[in-house]
Amino acid sequence: MNTGRLKLLMAGAALCACLTAARQGDALAEGADADAARTTVSKWISTQQIILKESKEWQQGKEILQSRIELLEQEIAGLEEKLAQAREGTREAGRREGELAGESRMLEQRAAKLAQEVTDLEGAIKTVHVSLPPPVQERLAPLYQRIPEDPAATRASVGERYQNVLGILNEINKSNGEIMLVNEIRALSDGTPSEVKSVYVGLGQAYFLSASGEAGVGRPAADGWEWVPANELAANIQEVVDILSNKGSPKFVPLPVEIR
Question: pTM for this one?
Fold first, then answer.
């Protein structure tokens, strides 16, 4: 084998060795790149998963927050409505308070007027008391005791005082239409007290008859009842007494009446 061929063979062998080494280097490089790519892809996938998870959580949080906002808006709207109603109620209460104040003043004025009127009526009734027949005075004594001595200091209400006045007036009116037969003690012409039978005709006329036959006529005066002798009427008064005592038959009996 000549030298030239040997060199050629050696060169070929070296070239083969170089090509083999190059191929092995390329294979190693390709393996390293594949590992890096897989790592990158894995990290990208993990990142996307994290992003997706956080996106879902954010969406859920957004929905919850939106619900709370809507609920708060409803509560605020309800509170504003109640506040508006409260303000209107306050204005209405103010108007009503003014009306009540006016009504209260008017009622106070009416009450004062009624109190003055019943005081005047009580004064007039007191004046009449002395001219009432003694049996009527006795009958009305409990009602007269209810008339206050000092109207400004009494605890009785105006209504109670009016009822008392009406009770007295009703009894007086009733007595004015009655004929009453009562036993009384009266001083006779000689000044001796004696039991007599008195006949009261309404509120303005009366007659009496003693057991001894002394008779008289009575009429109301400014300071009480005044009595004058009328013995000539004894027989007629006795007839009236008998009729009222159911000892005689009813009939007309003439007796004098003086109207003042």
Answer: 0.59
